[in-house]
Sequence to fold (283 residues):
Amino acid sequence: MTAIELGFLSANVYNGVPLEKALQSLAKHGYTRVELGAQPGHTHVKAEKVLSGGAGEIKGVVKQNGYEISALCSHVNHLHPDEKKREELNAFFKKNIEAAAALDVSCLTTFSGSPASWQHPGSADWGLFKAVFDDLTDFAGQHGCKLAIEVHFGSMTYNVKTMRKMFETVPAKNLGLNFDPSHFIWQLIDAQAAAEEFPARIFHTHAKDVKVFPDKLRVCGVNDRSYYSQRMPGWGDFDWKRFILFLMAQTDCDVLSVEHEDPMFVGEIGFVKAAEFLRPLLI
Fold:
């Protein structure tokens, strides 16, 4: 049985806040893992600084505050339609792989990306995906790292069908999932069933919930996004007890990383509410 710890994504709420302050704010609520923001615009990990001798400082701050790093978060469009931009983004991502290795971190969370404008998942190019991710998984493997794809509408990998296609196209064992139930729930996909199809591929999770409003759905339909709202775990529709039992019994994933996008609990209170609900469920 896999023991699971409570973590949080340092971007969004704490982006721009000194890392030590962010860690200290949540340590008292039982958080022991941190997913450090490392993508463009994130402030807690800059690959250039890490690779020029700054890894020790970050590792020291994290350890002194009672944490471990669960992953580096580096969401870029790996399949950008402009070839030059695509090369730049993937070169940036490779620097983050090197930074992860320097920080003794074995997992990077990211998107699959889209070869057309964002929010057009139907324009799939699996040949391009294979070329890009064969290279990225090979490079990550050389550095002892795994790539955890967050299935997300707007990316090529956005539902169960495209997850299956992703693993058929690139079967590398270090390509897996950063499983976020919320992105399935609002699409009206069975998130638990989606997770249970790929237990060996779940490397990391985002603990984020969704509340669907059936009365609005009946009137507005799925193209009007007012029928749902992002929620902290325990305040939406997902069965977290069932999901956590599954993670413990059938996967090697050892972290629930809370991602804060809840408009009701602004700022730190959202993380407090998530911890109050999740901590009693974890061992």
Residues 83-102 form the longest helix (20 residues). Residues 5-281 form a domain with the TIM Barrel fold (CATH 3.20.20.150). The chain has a mean pLDDT of 95.
